Amino acid sequence: MEETFHNHDYLIIDRLTYRFGEPQRGDVIVFNSPASKGNTLIKRVIGLPGDTVTVSDTGVMIANADNPKGFVLSESYITPENLGGASGQTVTLAPDHYFVMGDNRAASYDSRSWGTLPGSNIVGRVMLRLYPFSDMRLLPGEARY
Asked: What is the top EC class of this enzyme, as a single word (predicted)?
């Protein structure tokens, strides 16, 4: 699978929504990397505060207070051959921490590598790809359970 965003894409970022609410599962966000100061990254929110996230070869399992037995995240934008990496990894998220992953899972440097993302690192939510014009569209994909 090809990555969702490319170098030199022009994106419209919503910097206001998270001042009044929390990121939701499936949101694509821009944030300051907790692993390398000065780098800004784009990833999808997979796990929310309080969730227990398990990454396996077959997908992502989320357990939380509403779903103590867990559920497999339904991600139509991810193909089976692109799941990649960190099989069997399990993490429980602290308050105001998120688990984020890239859509190009096999090649993504994300929470599987550097851990959870503090909410204070989040810059905003990607709303629209503006350029290149041939790829102009509202945020692609969504995560469901």
From this structure: hydrolase
